[in-house]
Design goal:
Elements: E1 9-12, H1 17-23, H2 25-39, E2 43-46, E3 58-60, H3 66-75, E4 78-81, H4 90-97, E5 102-105, E6 120-123, H5 129-138, H6 143-150, H7 152-167, H8 187-193
Parallel strand pairs: 1-2, 1-4, 2-3, 4-5, 5-6
Helix pairs in contact: 2-5, 3-8, 4-6, 6-7
């Protein structure tokens, strides 16, 4: 990963209008300005909205292909998720699978079940984002370990199996489902594929 793509904080925005709304770009921009001003982290914004006002100390990139995005997330120290109306951001679960802690808006309507002291923390707005990010960066967390213990393909496979057993009680006990996408390639996607 090139050094200019390594970040303390990464935010994945939305280049299109609906993505900016779902990812809550107005709050993201306010939080990133406050973070850069008060904590001086290396910040990377992926899929920045067109015409977004530059934020000093923040690197803005356009959309990335999924493998490169996962590599950028894996290289970050935390993921900032200011979304409220995004029902359950896939990027949140991807970050946890890549062992990257998350800092998530406490008003998010979905995905909140993934956030706890093992995986990251919540914040409300630009007034408390700096201490939230600092707390996540200060303490080594193991979000991947927690995610695999409580979610992930083996657990999802077991739930599918329980459902199938309600439909066919004679299914053999050795029968299992593991939900994985088989065509992952690259180190970040390999790690994610194991989640």
């Amino acid at each position: 990963m090139p050094d200019d793509l390594v970040a303390d904080v990464i935010h994945v925005s939305g280049g299109e209008a609906w993505g900016q709304d779902a990812k809550n770009w107005p709050l993201a921009a306010r939080c990133l300005r406050r973070l850069v001003r008060d904590a001086s982290p290396r910040v990377l914004v992926v899929d920045a909205p067109p015409g977004a006002e530059p934020i000093e100390g923040t690197r803005f990139l356009g959309a990335m292909d999924h493998g490169d995005l996962l590599a950028a997330i894996a290289a970050a120290r935390c993921l900032l998720v200011p979304a409220v109306i995004d029902p359950s951001p896939r990027v949140l679960a991807e970050a946890l699978c890549l062992d990257v802690p998350v800092v998530v808006n406490r008003r998010i309507i979905g995905g909140w079940k993934y956030v706890n002291h093992f995986t990251g923390t919540f914040f409300a707005d630009e007034d408390d984002v700096v201490p939230a990010v600092r707390s996540v960066l200060r303490v080594r967390r193991r979000p991947r370990r927690w995610f695999l213990a409580h979610h992930g393909p083996a657990r999802a496979g077991a739930e599918v199996f329980r459902l199938l057993r309600t439909l066919d009680p004679d299914l053999p006990h050795t029968f299992t489902y593991v939900l994985l996408k088989p065509d992952f390639a690259g180190s970040a996607t390999d790690q994610l594929g194991q989640c």
